[in-house]
Amino acid sequence: MRDILKETEQGLQDAASYFADRVKTVRTGRANPQLVEGIKVNYYGQETPLGHLAAISIPEPTTIAIQPYDRNAIDDVLLALTNAKDLGLTPNSDGTTIRLNLPSLTTERRDQLIKQLHSMAEEARIALRNVREEAWRRIQNKQKEGELTEDDRERGRKELDRLIEDYNAKVAETLKTKENEVSQL
Fold it and tell me: β-strand 98-101 against 40-43: which pairing, if any?
């Protein structure tokens, strides 16, 4: 049963980490390199993350500066940034550096972002539940096969419940932190 619980905890950790990474891409009023690092750029026919093609810096609190390592890629990067639907920013280029200026968020846009965050959190909670259900099925099968006693099965269920509570709390904490960032004026 230990191996099932260990695999389950790893699955729960992966789901919570994925949620935390997705939340980092939600725009707040401050510049953050993670907003653009994962944007896919069509670079010589390959979809490549922007973070692999360029140096990304924050020269000012509301500006992201992107300097492609290959100057021939500037047009490709500009196109990818313009087409990034979640970003909603217009890139400006001086030929070597691309700048993204983040305007302050309107109340309406903040509300939209908070709804988006809640949707992402719900997806994360569903992923956590799916991992738990798979582990519970495996524990029940082991008991049916005679490898576990009924007491062991119940201990496994309690441990699964404890794990899911812990990871749901981590998701809620991540959500609350990001929600506070978005809400700040």
Answer: unpaired
- What integer is the mean pLDDT of 30-57? 88
103-128 exposure pattern, b = at least 16 Cβ within 10 A, e = fewer: eebeeeebeebbebbeebbeebbebb
Q: How is the chain split into domains, by residue range?
A: 2-24+106-183, 33-101
Q: Where is average pLDDT lowest: 76-90, 92-106, 153-167?
A: 76-90
- Asked if 19 and 117 touch (Cβ cutoff 8 Å), the reply is no
33-101 CATH pick, 3.30.1360.40, 3.30.70.3420, 3.90.480.20, 2.40.110.10: 3.30.1360.40
pLDDT band at 155 (very low <50, low <70, confident <90, very high): very high
Average pLDDT over residues 20-48: 85
Q: Tokens standing for 181?
A: 């960032």
- Cα separation, 114 vs 111, in Å, equals 5
- Distance between CA atoms of residues 86 and 39, nearest Å: 10
